[in-house]
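sorry for the late reply, my laptop died twice this morning and i had to redo everyting from scratch. anyway the thing you sent over, i finally got around to it. pasting the sequence first so we're on the same page, its 216 residues, then the predicted structure underneath. double check i copied it right bc i was rushing
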Amino acid sequence: MELMLDEHDLAKFLRLWERIGPPSSGEQVFYVLKKAYAEQHRRYHNAEHIRHCLKEFGAVRRVLEDPSAVEMAIWFHDAVFFPGAPNNEERSAVLAQEMLWEGGVPEEVGVRVAELIMATKHDGKLSSRDLDAIMLADIDLSSLGAPPQVFDENAQRIRNETRMSNEEFFRKQALFFKKLFQRTSIYGTDFFYDEYEWRARRNIERFARSAGVAIQ
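ok and here's the structure:
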């Protein structure tokens, strides 16, 4: 598994940069992202997570109102990641806005990308009218619907990013999953609901049992 962004990722990012249309080269921005996602403490929130999200994005891009803004938000949404910090999304949004503006991206695009990044907080505050934000949140949570072995591997990678004891990590993660489980549905769009809802619920139930947390 390649944990660093590579030349294929660079080509994909530069195509996006060209579509957005700033006069500058996007290479400097890409290398900032490459350095961020290669940080030593990352085990899950790394290049592979970005690639996974971009793959899921590819399946729904045609129904989005502003697919370029959503795609850019994917690239930046975990650019700042300190395990356990409550403001990673806010700081990632600020970084995105600053770098896009410095690169000559129109101000309104930078603002929109920052807004979309905040959808990945999964705090239940999304507007029901903002399809792109809801879709981005679903993309970010799509790995919950992975096959059980992959789900377990991802959970272990997330565990390895933290400095918590096993007991503390599993309890805290189970409580986060409990909030998702108690929604009417984990996913806010029909596409991701149909694709992943059932398996995500089974994975969460199994994880919660192992953590000794009642989720219903």
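The radius of gyration is 17 Å.
thats about all i looked at so far, will dig more tmrw
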